[in-house]
Amino acid sequence: MQTLGFFFFIGLLFISYISSSSLASTSRRLTTLKQTDLQPEDFKLHVDPNLKFENPRLMKAYYALQEWKKAIYSDPQNMTGNWVGPNVCSYEGVFCALAKDDPNILTVGLIDLNYGDIAGHLVPHLALLSDLGVLHINSNRFCGIIPKTFSKLNRLFEFDVSNNRFVGPFPKVVLGMPHLRFLDIRYNEFEGALPPELFEKRLDAIVVNNNRFHSAIPDNIGNSPVSMLVLANNKFTGCIPKTFGNMPRLEQVSLSNNLLTGCLPEEITNLQGLIVFDVSDNKFVGQLPKNLDKLKRVERFDFSNNELTGKVEKSVCSINALLDFRISSNYFSEINGECDKLVSEKLLSMKDKDNCIPKRSDQKTDKICSQMVNRQVDCKNVGCTPPGNRKVTPHKPKPPPQKIHPTIKAALTPPTPVQSPLPPVFSPPPTSSVPPPTPQSPPAPTLKDIVRPPNIGSRYSPPPPPVVQGH
Questions:
Q1: Which end of the chain has the least Cβ crowding within 10 Å, N or C?
Q2: 3-state class (DSSP) for residue 379
Q3: How many whole angstroms separate alpha carbon 156 and alpha carbon 173?
Q4: Phi and psi of 294, rounded to 5°?
Q5: How many other C-beta atoms are found inside a 10 Å radius of the C-beta of residue 268?
Q6: For the chain, which residues make up each domain, given as ranges?
Q7: CATH of the domain spanning 234-392, picked from 3.80.10.10, 3.20.20.70, 3.30.470.10, 1.10.10.60
Q8: Which residue, among 245, 248, 264, 303, has the nearest Cα to 471 in the 3D structure?
Q9: What is the DSSP pairing of strand 237-238 with strand 259-260?
Q10: Is 42 helix (H, G, I), strand (E, B) or coil?
Q11: How far apart are CA 41 and CA 217, in angstroms?
């Protein structure tokens, strides 16, 4: 019996050793991957000489995809199961089209592995896909970092790695993608600051919500030409820069659930194209900006869960396009009667509970209101202290909303997975907003697709990330 116990003990030690060695090996591979500075031209293609390829680009694609397949640890839907043989254009999730620079050459132009629940990491060899225009791998379990070699993807214009497990600082490699227009890295574990260079890039959409970013918003944000900006559910601090008003193409913006402070800048009223404006669940003070009625296209305002005071003017509610107006959990003391009239006529949805409005139900107590309603706020000197010089306490996100207005209900899911290949053109999209999709290309999401995580059923249940509050 003692002999059996001895061998059982030795067996456990052996299993432990093997497991530790395996983990150490994986750790070494990821460390090597992180430190590599290889360029695509440095790769030596080891391809079976018996395999025949239509052209050298497809041979490079074969090599890159096989290297990637080696870095996939789990593929429960067997999406990469048919990644065998030289016909890469038949691989699931891989789509080919004629190259832009040579209409006689077939090449890989799009990869879509959305909703695959695939575990693994990205490999530097994918930079060999020099004609790749779209890379969609959202809703998987890819981890690690974005390889530096991805800056060589000179034709990439859509990069969606959302709802995965990538880590580290903001992936600056995307700044080197010359034709990138749509950037979606939401629902990962990126942290630190956003680089100012991000807002100098000619992007149409910046979607970075539900990560761990913590810093002030760069002052040069006004240089960005984006039509969609989603910074929600992070820990950004300080004020909204006044340059925010210099973004004439901005249509949809969510800064919800951060640690932003100070007053809302009057420059917001310069955003003539604005459709959705959500700054809920922050620490903004002072009154609403004057002349909000200049924003003729706005369909949704959400100022809820802040420390705003003053009166809601008639001009705000009289915006013809406005459908959804939210000011709950502030310290407003008066709402113009025109707003109530529009609500009664069902022309406007308004949420105004937990304020300080007389003769209205569900308001704060007189004791709380007396301390805040008449508070004087100097917007020039409040709330913009650099984050390193003051202490901030993160507030917990509230439960997910039961109802969300149609104009933003989704930014909240990624684009529908691609069902067919790209057309034989790989030009960067036009500069007017997120490019309109062709029947063969994946539709770009709107803000209603982004702030909430994708609903992918029981196939993948990641840890529940923060969600938009107060709706």
A1: N
A2: coil
A3: 12
A4: -70, -20
A5: 22
A6: 30-193+397-463, 234-392
A7: 3.80.10.10
A8: 303
A9: parallel
A10: helix
A11: 37
Look at the block and give the residue holding tokens 């997975």: 417
Tokens of 35: 């430190």
d(CA 133, CA 427): 8
Here the tokens at position 212 are: 């761990």
- Tens place of pLDDT for every residue, the chain, 471 residues? 444 444 333 343 333 333 333 433 443 344 344 444 555 556 667 777 888 999 999 999 999 999 999 999 999 999 999 999 999 999 999 999 999 999 999 999 999 999 999 999 999 999 999 999 999 999 999 999 999 999 999 999 999 999 999 999 999 999 999 999 999 999 999 999 999 999 999 999 999 999 999 999 999 999 999 999 999 999 999 999 999 999 989 999 999 999 999 999 999 999 999 999 999 999 999 999 999 999 999 999 999 999 999 999 999 999 999 999 999 999 999 999 999 999 999 999 999 999 999 989 999 999 999 888 888 888 887 767 554 444 434 444 443 333 333 333 343 333 333 333 333 323 333 333 333 333 333 344 555 555 554 433 333 333 333 333 333
pTM score of the predicted model: 0.78
b/e for 306-337, b at 16 or more Cβ within 10 A? bbbbeebbeebbebeebebbbbbbbbbbebee
